[in-house]
Structures are given as C-alpha cells and as structure tokens.
C-alpha cells in the first residue's frame, strides 16, 4: 500500500483482528500489530481503528468498497455515509447516463 501511494490518499484506516500470525503475541520477539501499523503510516496523522472483525479471516463483516464513511477512532465507530447497495434500477440508470 505504501509503495502504491494508497497511504497518501487515505483519511483513516481500519485494521482487522490478526488471526494466526505467529510472533505477534510475544512483543519481545516481534513488533506488535499496533507498532507495525504505526511504522507503515509514518508521520501521517489519521485515525486508526484496530481489532475490527474485517479482513481475510473470519469472523469478518462485509466492507463495501467505494463509498464514503466516517471513522471515529476515539468512539471506536465506523459509519457508512451512503448506501452500500442500490436497487437494480438505480444501477441501470448509472450505466445509461
């Protein structure tokens, strides 16, 4: 993500709960997930919400792609600001405009 420039375009980050990543449970052997995320983000001052049930391993909540969302890391909330799905007639209208 860093090399692709994605981190330069995000306003917040949601990090899933790590599953079966050996070494993260022993901070004397490996950096913690929080340390890894902070290292990747560098000096970017953006909210980060961690240990959320999203990602590649279950349980994982569906996360829509391409819609606006509001992230409040202090309150630990992620709110979708627009519908995640549209009716089929709306999708068809977009294709003809």
TrEMBL record:
**Flavoprotein recorded as keyword:** no
Q: Which UniProt keywords apply?
A: Carboxypeptidase, Hydrolase, Protease, Serine protease
One GO term under biological process is: proteolysis
Tell me which residues make up the LD-carboxypeptidase C-terminal domain: 1-71
Pfam families assigned to the protein according to its UniProt record, in alphabetical order: Peptidase_S66C
Transmembrane regions: none
Q: Has keyword Hydrolase?
A: yes
- One GO molecular-function annotation for this sequence? serine-type peptidase activity
Concerning PANTHER family, the annotation shows: MURAMOYLTETRAPEPTIDE CARBOXYPEPTIDASE, MUREIN TETRAPEPTIDE CARBOXYPEPTIDASE
Q: What is this protein called?
A: Muramoyltetrapeptide carboxypeptidase LdcA involved in peptidoglycan recycling
